[in-house]
Specification:
400 residues, alpha/beta, Aspartate Aminotransferase, domain 1, Aspartate Aminotransferase, domain 2, 2 domains, 8-stranded mixed β-sheet, 4-stranded antiparallel β-sheet, 42% helix, 15% strand, globular, binds pyridoxal-5'-phosphate
């Protein structure tokens, strides 16, 4: 007799990502892929990480290999606090943050601790796909605030806050995934003022803020919260070493009000007990060795060149068939098909045609929690060399 596994009702709220289907096609030989959402493995500082592993095993084998505290390995919490302070986030001490298994786990813990079925959460349109899925798994009803070249539209955001009284607002203010947008300084201050004025929690997800190409972006919401009274206690900040050092380490962190960190720590205890102490000790040694500034300088320079090459190639090969804001950091070009001259105007349709021509990217529609814009697409320049970017965009030009 066949057996139907009695899955929990919460799974009815989510479906596997539409993007997965596309990823199956990426194995085709000769495909140039702009579809990934990850850093270039060729740029990992393998020597530095090897030294950090050796130092962790030499200096602190007990700590690196034993069970550890759920909040995180203290030497790493200290290093992360110093790293954050060095970037202008004043007033962040080790006890103000917990280490998470990637920032993805921080998002999951926020879903677990804050969302009851039917609660409203405001997200950007577009936003990080895994966040949409994660919050929905906890029964969140997502409300979408529109994003333009300056990040989230704060006037619309305020209207949505008043109308929906959300549990919290989730933003990726700096080089968002997938939007690539950078929230302006003025809007950043406005977001914090709105948090205080309407008494609502804001989550700042910031895995890309260090990956800027020219001038540094405006200070994080966390840094700015020092100058907006009442905003720090309504703010959660998620950080990650994934995009700057190595996603395989699975080291992320969350800065937030003590009460929230305590509940999140309780939930983490039931989830993975603690983030790998081996990875944490390695990350702590890496930061302690002072290698991060040189690593950041290197990845910024490489991604900046790739982003510029992709932008120029898109303008040349696709002309008025596409529009986009040239990213100032991060890993992505977020673009819109215009349909000019009868060219393809649907991102999903172009993705299929592009695969036939030997190039892949991700259509933008799945990144919207509501009302998808089907003309959008996300192109990652991060893992592709300059020649291949030129060639891949040329193929895209032939597909459109
Ligand atoms: C916006 C955003 N948040 C969080 C994550 C999760 O990263 P990790 O769990 O590797 O820190 C990602 C990864 O792509 C992301 O793009």
């Amino acid at each position: 007799m066949s057996f139907a596994i009695p899955f929990a009702d919460r799974l009815n709220n989510v479906e596997t990502s539409a993007i997965r289907e596309l990823f199956k096609l990426l194995g085709k030989p000769g495909i140039i892929s702009f579809a990934g959402g990850f850093p270039d493995s060729a740029m990992f500082d393998v020597d530095g990480i090897r030294e950090a592993v050796n130092a962790a095993l030499t200096e602190e084998a007990g700590g690196a290999l034993q069970y550890g505290a759920t909040e995180g390995y203290n030497p790493l919490r200290e290093q992360l606090a110093a790293f954050m302070t060095g970037k202008g986030n004043q007033g962040v001490a080790a006890e103000n943050l917990i280490v998470t298994t990637g920032s993805q786990q921080a998002l999951d813990l926020l879903g677990k601790t804050l969302v009851s079925p039917g609660d409203k959460v405001i997200v950007e349109g577009p936003t990080f796909l895994a966040t949409i899925q994660c919050f929905r798994l906890y029964g969140a009803q997502l409300v979408t605030a529109p994003v333009d070249g300056q990040g989230v539209d704060t006037d619309r955001l305020e209207k949505l806050i008043v109308e929906h009284k959300p549990k919290f607002i989730y933003l990726i203010p700096t080089f968002g995934n997938p939007s690539g947008a950078m929230l302006s300084l003025e809007r950043r201050k406005r977001v914090l003022e709105l948090a205080v004025q309407h008494n609502v929690l804001v989550v700042e997800d910031d895995p890309y803020g260090d990956l800027y190409f020219g001038d540094a972006p405006p200070p994080s919401l966390l840094a700015l919260s020092a100058s907006v009274p009442g905003s720090r206690e309504r703010l959660v900040h998620c950080g990650s070493l994934s995009k700057v050092l190595s996603p395989g380490l699975r080291v992320g962190w969350m800065v937030g009000p003590a009460e929230l960190l305590a509940k999140a720590t309780m939930c983490k205890q039931f989830s993975d007990a603690h983030t790998s102490t081996f990875a944490q000790a390695t990350a702590a040694q890496y930061l302690k060795a002072g290698r991060m500034p040189a690593t950041l300088a290197k990845v910024r320079a490489v991604y900046a060149e790739r982003a510029a090459t992709m932008g120029n190639a898109l303008r040349r090969e696709l002309g008025d068939a596409i529009e986009f804001v040239q990213p100032q950091g991060g890993l992505f070009v977020w673009a819109r098909l215009t349909g000019a001259g009868g060219k393809v105007a649907d991102g999903g349709e172009l993705a299929k045609r592009a695969i036939d021509k030997g190039v892949a990217f991700v259509p933008g529609a799945p990144f919207y929690a509501n009302n998808p814009d089907h003309a959008t697409l996300r192109l990652s320049f991060a893992t592709v060399g300059l020649d291949k970017i030129e060639e891949g965009v040329g193929r895209l030009g032939a597909a459109v």
